[in-house]
Protein backbone atom coordinates (compact mmCIF):
# COMPACT_ATOMS: atom_id res chain seq x y z
CA UNK A 1 0.00 0.00 0.00
CA UNK A 2 1.32 3.43 -0.98
CA UNK A 3 0.99 6.34 1.44
CA UNK A 4 1.24 10.07 0.78
CA UNK A 5 0.68 13.36 2.58
CA UNK A 6 -1.81 15.85 1.19
CA UNK A 7 0.19 19.08 1.23
CA UNK A 8 -2.88 20.94 2.51
CA UNK A 9 -1.83 19.38 5.82
CA UNK A 10 1.18 21.73 5.71
CA UNK A 11 -0.52 24.96 4.60
CA UNK A 12 1.11 26.57 7.64
CA UNK A 13 4.38 26.25 5.68
CA UNK A 14 5.40 27.66 2.29
CA UNK A 15 5.71 25.08 -0.46
CA UNK A 16 9.48 24.56 -0.35
CA UNK A 17 9.38 23.98 3.40
CA UNK A 18 6.34 21.71 3.06
CA UNK A 19 8.14 19.52 0.52
CA UNK A 20 11.16 19.18 2.78
CA UNK A 21 8.99 18.60 5.85
CA UNK A 22 6.97 15.83 4.18
CA UNK A 23 10.17 13.99 3.28
CA UNK A 24 11.68 14.51 6.73
CA UNK A 25 8.50 13.25 8.40
CA UNK A 26 8.92 9.95 6.56
CA UNK A 27 6.38 10.23 3.75
CA UNK A 28 7.37 8.63 0.44
CA UNK A 29 5.01 10.80 -1.61
CA UNK A 30 3.04 14.02 -1.57
CA UNK A 31 -0.38 14.95 -2.91
CA UNK A 32 0.30 18.44 -4.21
CA UNK A 33 -2.37 21.00 -3.32
CA UNK A 34 -2.95 23.13 -6.42
CA UNK A 35 -3.82 26.37 -4.69
CA UNK A 36 -2.08 29.05 -2.62
CA UNK A 37 0.04 28.89 -0.58
CA UNK A 38 1.37 25.87 -2.47
CA UNK A 39 1.09 25.08 -6.19
CA UNK A 40 -1.33 27.75 -7.42
CA UNK A 41 -2.11 28.53 -11.05
CA UNK A 42 0.51 31.27 -11.36
CA UNK A 43 3.19 28.93 -10.05
CA UNK A 44 1.95 26.15 -12.32
CA UNK A 45 2.20 28.41 -15.36
CA UNK A 46 5.56 29.93 -14.50
CA UNK A 47 7.55 27.61 -12.26
CA UNK A 48 6.25 24.05 -12.67
CA UNK A 49 9.60 22.59 -13.75
CA UNK A 50 11.34 23.95 -10.66
CA UNK A 51 8.65 22.64 -8.32
CA UNK A 52 8.79 19.19 -9.92
CA UNK A 53 12.56 19.18 -9.55
CA UNK A 54 12.39 20.16 -5.86
CA UNK A 55 9.95 17.33 -5.16
CA UNK A 56 12.20 14.86 -6.97
CA UNK A 57 15.30 16.11 -5.14
CA UNK A 58 13.48 15.58 -1.83
CA UNK A 59 13.00 11.93 -2.81
CA UNK A 60 9.22 12.20 -2.96
CA UNK A 61 6.77 10.77 -5.44
CA UNK A 62 3.59 12.64 -6.35
CA UNK A 63 0.36 10.83 -5.53
CA UNK A 64 -1.81 13.37 -7.33
CA UNK A 65 -2.15 16.97 -8.35
CA UNK A 66 -5.01 18.09 -6.13
CA UNK A 67 -7.38 20.82 -7.31
CA UNK A 68 -9.96 22.80 -5.35
CA UNK A 69 -12.33 23.22 -8.27
CA UNK A 70 -15.93 24.37 -8.75
CA UNK A 71 -17.82 23.29 -11.86
CA UNK A 72 -21.34 24.17 -10.74
CA UNK A 73 -21.33 27.94 -11.32
CA UNK A 74 -22.26 28.93 -14.87
CA UNK A 75 -20.42 32.25 -14.53
CA UNK A 76 -17.04 30.65 -13.82
CA UNK A 77 -17.23 27.11 -15.18
CA UNK A 78 -15.27 27.84 -18.37
CA UNK A 79 -12.50 29.51 -16.39
CA UNK A 80 -12.43 26.55 -14.00
CA UNK A 81 -12.20 24.12 -16.92
CA UNK A 82 -9.31 26.07 -18.44
CA UNK A 83 -7.48 26.10 -15.11
CA UNK A 84 -8.04 22.38 -14.55
CA UNK A 85 -6.75 21.59 -18.05
CA UNK A 86 -3.52 23.40 -17.20
CA UNK A 87 -2.91 21.10 -14.23
CA UNK A 88 -4.02 17.96 -16.07
CA UNK A 89 -1.46 18.62 -18.80
CA UNK A 90 1.23 19.09 -16.13
CA UNK A 91 0.60 15.73 -14.47
CA UNK A 92 3.16 13.83 -16.60
CA UNK A 93 5.83 16.35 -15.57
CA UNK A 94 5.25 15.29 -11.97
CA UNK A 95 5.22 11.58 -12.91
CA UNK A 96 1.68 11.16 -11.64
CA UNK A 97 -1.27 9.71 -13.51
CA UNK A 98 -3.93 11.20 -11.23
CA UNK A 99 -5.56 14.61 -10.84
CA UNK A 100 -7.96 15.07 -7.93
CA UNK A 101 -10.81 17.54 -8.36
CA UNK A 102 -13.81 18.75 -6.38
CA UNK A 103 -17.18 19.13 -8.13
CA UNK A 104 -18.36 22.25 -6.35
CA UNK A 105 -21.29 23.25 -4.15
CA UNK A 106 -24.07 23.04 -3.14
CA UNK A 107 -24.60 19.95 -1.02
CA UNK A 108 -26.34 17.21 -2.98
CA UNK A 109 -29.59 17.72 -1.08
CA UNK A 110 -29.76 21.31 -2.35
CA UNK A 111 -28.55 20.68 -5.90
CA UNK A 112 -30.66 21.55 -8.92
CA UNK A 113 -30.55 20.11 -12.41
CA UNK A 114 -28.45 23.06 -13.58
CA UNK A 115 -25.65 22.27 -11.16
CA UNK A 116 -25.40 18.74 -12.51
CA UNK A 117 -25.61 19.98 -16.10
CA UNK A 118 -22.64 22.32 -15.66
CA UNK A 119 -20.67 19.57 -13.93
CA UNK A 120 -21.44 17.18 -16.80
CA UNK A 121 -20.24 19.80 -19.28
CA UNK A 122 -16.97 20.15 -17.36
CA UNK A 123 -16.46 16.40 -17.07
CA UNK A 124 -16.89 15.93 -20.82
CA UNK A 125 -14.23 18.54 -21.55
CA UNK A 126 -11.78 17.42 -18.88
CA UNK A 127 -12.10 13.70 -19.58
CA UNK A 128 -11.05 14.33 -23.16
CA UNK A 129 -7.99 16.29 -22.04
CA UNK A 130 -7.09 13.66 -19.44
CA UNK A 131 -7.33 10.86 -22.00
CA UNK A 132 -4.91 12.73 -24.28
CA UNK A 133 -2.20 12.72 -21.61
CA UNK A 134 -3.14 9.34 -20.09
CA UNK A 135 -4.25 10.78 -16.76
CA UNK A 136 -7.21 9.74 -14.64
CA UNK A 137 -9.49 12.20 -12.82
CA UNK A 138 -10.75 11.54 -9.29
CA UNK A 139 -13.58 13.69 -7.93
CA UNK A 140 -13.58 13.87 -4.15
CA UNK A 141 -16.52 12.88 -1.98
CA UNK A 142 -16.54 16.30 -0.38
CA UNK A 143 -18.56 17.92 2.37
CA UNK A 144 -21.18 20.47 1.26
CA UNK A 145 -20.63 19.66 -2.40
CA UNK A 146 -22.50 17.54 -4.95
CA UNK A 147 -20.64 14.40 -3.89
CA UNK A 148 -21.13 14.74 -0.13
CA UNK A 149 -23.17 11.51 0.07
CA UNK A 150 -23.13 8.08 -1.50
CA UNK A 151 -26.06 9.07 -3.71
CA UNK A 152 -24.23 12.19 -4.89
CA UNK A 153 -21.13 10.16 -5.72
CA UNK A 154 -23.25 7.66 -7.64
CA UNK A 155 -24.86 10.46 -9.64
CA UNK A 156 -21.43 11.81 -10.59
CA UNK A 157 -20.39 8.37 -11.83
CA UNK A 158 -23.55 8.19 -13.91
CA UNK A 159 -22.67 11.56 -15.44
CA UNK A 160 -19.08 10.41 -16.05
CA UNK A 161 -19.44 7.30 -18.18
CA UNK A 162 -15.75 7.07 -19.07
CA UNK A 163 -13.42 5.12 -16.78
CA UNK A 164 -11.07 8.06 -17.11
CA UNK A 165 -13.19 9.62 -14.36
CA UNK A 166 -13.56 8.14 -10.89
CA UNK A 167 -13.48 9.16 -7.26
CA UNK A 168 -11.25 10.25 -4.44
CA UNK A 169 -13.09 8.49 -1.63
CA UNK A 170 -12.88 10.46 1.61
CA UNK A 171 -14.38 8.12 4.20
CA UNK A 172 -14.46 10.80 6.88
CA UNK A 173 -16.49 13.15 4.67
CA UNK A 174 -18.98 10.35 3.97
CA UNK A 175 -19.17 9.55 7.69
CA UNK A 176 -19.88 13.21 8.47
CA UNK A 177 -22.84 12.95 6.08
CA UNK A 178 -24.15 9.92 7.95
CA UNK A 179 -23.03 7.39 5.37
CA UNK A 180 -22.80 3.66 6.01
CA UNK A 181 -19.12 3.24 5.18
CA UNK A 182 -19.16 -0.48 4.29
CA UNK A 183 -22.10 0.18 1.95
CA UNK A 184 -20.30 3.19 0.47
CA UNK A 185 -17.17 1.18 -0.13
CA UNK A 186 -19.05 -1.67 -1.76
CA UNK A 187 -20.91 0.71 -4.08
CA UNK A 188 -17.90 2.81 -5.07
CA UNK A 189 -15.02 0.31 -5.07
CA UNK A 190 -14.78 -0.07 -8.85
CA UNK A 191 -14.22 3.65 -9.41
CA UNK A 192 -12.17 4.46 -6.29
CA UNK A 193 -8.92 5.77 -7.75
CA UNK A 194 -7.64 7.61 -4.69
CA UNK A 195 -8.41 7.71 -0.96
CA UNK A 196 -8.16 10.48 1.63
CA UNK A 197 -7.74 9.52 5.27
CA UNK A 198 -8.54 11.88 8.12
CA UNK A 199 -10.82 11.73 11.13
CA UNK A 200 -13.02 13.81 13.36
CA UNK A 201 -16.51 14.26 14.72
CA UNK A 202 -19.42 16.71 14.65
CA UNK A 203 -19.81 18.79 17.80
CA UNK A 204 -23.04 19.86 19.51
CA UNK A 205 -23.16 22.99 17.34
CA UNK A 206 -23.00 20.93 14.17
CA UNK A 207 -19.41 21.92 13.39
CA UNK A 208 -16.72 19.52 12.17
CA UNK A 209 -13.83 18.91 14.56
CA UNK A 210 -10.71 17.18 13.31
CA UNK A 211 -8.20 15.22 15.32
CA UNK A 212 -5.93 12.20 15.30
CA UNK A 213 -6.52 9.57 12.65
CA UNK A 214 -7.70 6.99 15.18
CA UNK A 215 -10.20 9.29 16.93
CA UNK A 216 -13.52 10.16 15.33
CA UNK A 217 -16.50 8.87 13.40
CA UNK A 218 -14.43 6.79 10.97
CA UNK A 219 -13.29 3.42 12.28
CA UNK A 220 -10.25 2.77 10.11
CA UNK A 221 -9.63 -0.53 11.89
CA UNK A 222 -12.81 -1.67 10.12
CA UNK A 223 -12.53 0.36 6.91
CA UNK A 224 -8.96 -0.47 5.92
CA UNK A 225 -9.34 -4.28 5.83
CA UNK A 226 -12.50 -3.84 3.75
CA UNK A 227 -10.63 -1.51 1.38
CA UNK A 228 -7.75 -3.98 1.12
CA UNK A 229 -10.14 -6.78 0.24
CA UNK A 230 -11.49 -4.80 -2.74
CA UNK A 231 -8.03 -4.96 -4.33
CA UNK A 232 -7.53 -1.20 -4.06
CA UNK A 233 -3.99 -0.32 -5.18
CA UNK A 234 -3.94 3.48 -5.16
CA UNK A 235 -2.57 5.90 -2.60
CA UNK A 236 -3.84 6.54 0.90
CA UNK A 237 -3.32 10.28 1.31
CA UNK A 238 -3.27 11.56 4.87
CA UNK A 239 -5.11 14.88 5.27
CA UNK A 240 -4.46 16.73 8.53
CA UNK A 241 -6.89 19.52 9.36
CA UNK A 242 -7.92 21.53 12.41
CA UNK A 243 -5.92 23.31 15.12
CA UNK A 244 -3.25 20.61 15.38
CA UNK A 245 -2.37 20.96 11.69
CA UNK A 246 -2.36 24.76 11.92
CA UNK A 247 -0.25 24.96 15.07
CA UNK A 248 1.99 21.88 14.79
CA UNK A 249 1.83 20.81 11.14
CA UNK A 250 4.90 18.59 10.94
CA UNK A 251 4.31 16.89 14.27
CA UNK A 252 0.67 16.28 13.36
CA UNK A 253 1.56 14.77 10.00
CA UNK A 254 4.15 12.52 11.63
CA UNK A 255 1.61 11.47 14.29
CA UNK A 256 -1.00 10.45 11.72
CA UNK A 257 1.57 8.60 9.62
CA UNK A 258 2.52 6.50 12.65
CA UNK A 259 -1.15 5.78 13.34
CA UNK A 260 -1.82 4.81 9.72
CA UNK A 261 1.19 2.49 9.63
CA UNK A 262 -0.06 0.79 12.80
CA UNK A 263 -3.57 0.42 11.36
CA UNK A 264 -2.19 -0.98 8.10
CA UNK A 265 0.00 -3.45 9.98
CA UNK A 266 -3.00 -4.57 12.05
CA UNK A 267 -4.90 -5.07 8.79
CA UNK A 268 -2.07 -7.13 7.35
CA UNK A 269 -1.55 -4.53 4.64
CA UNK A 270 2.12 -3.70 4.10
CA UNK A 271 3.19 -0.28 2.84
CA UNK A 272 4.77 -0.51 -0.58
CA UNK A 273 6.82 2.67 -0.58
Would you write up a description of this structure?
The protein has 273 residues and is an alpha/beta fold. It has a single domain, classed as Alpha-Beta Barrel (TIM Barrel). The protein is 43% helix and 17% strand. It has 10 helices and 10 strands. The strands form 2 sheets. The protein has an 8-stranded parallel beta barrel with strand order 1-2-3-4-5-6-7-10, surrounded by 4 helices. Strands 8-9 form a two-stranded antiparallel ribbon. Strand 1 (2-6), helix 1 (15-24) and strand 2 (29-33) form a beta-alpha-beta unit. Helix 2 (41-57) runs parallel beside helix 3 (77-90) and helix 3 runs parallel beside helix 4. The radius of gyration is 17 Å and the shape is globular. The N and C termini lie close together (7 Å). The mean pLDDT is 96.
Helix content: 40-55%
The total count of helices amounts to 10
Percentage of residues in DSSP E strands: 15-25%
Structural class: alpha/beta
What is the second-level CATH architecture?
Answer: Alpha-Beta Barrel
Q: What's the Cα radius of gyration?
A: 17 Å
How many domain regions? 1
- Write down the overall geometry: globular
Extended strand count? 10
Distance between the termini: 7 Å
Largest beta sheet: strand ordering: 1-2-3-4-5-6-7-10
Q: Assign the CATH topology.
A: TIM Barrel
Main beta sheet strand tally, sense and closure: 8 strands, parallel, barrel
Model regions low in confidence, pLDDT < 50 over at least 5 residues: none
What's the level 1 CATH class? Alpha Beta
Amino acid sequence: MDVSLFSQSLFALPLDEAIAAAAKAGFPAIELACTAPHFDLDTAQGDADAVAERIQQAGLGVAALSLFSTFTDDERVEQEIESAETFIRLAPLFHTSLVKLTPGPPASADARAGHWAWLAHAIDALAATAAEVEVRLAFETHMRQLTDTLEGARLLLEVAESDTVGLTVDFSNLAFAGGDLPACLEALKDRAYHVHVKNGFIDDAGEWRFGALDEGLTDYADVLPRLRDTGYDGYLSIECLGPDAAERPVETARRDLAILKRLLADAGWATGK
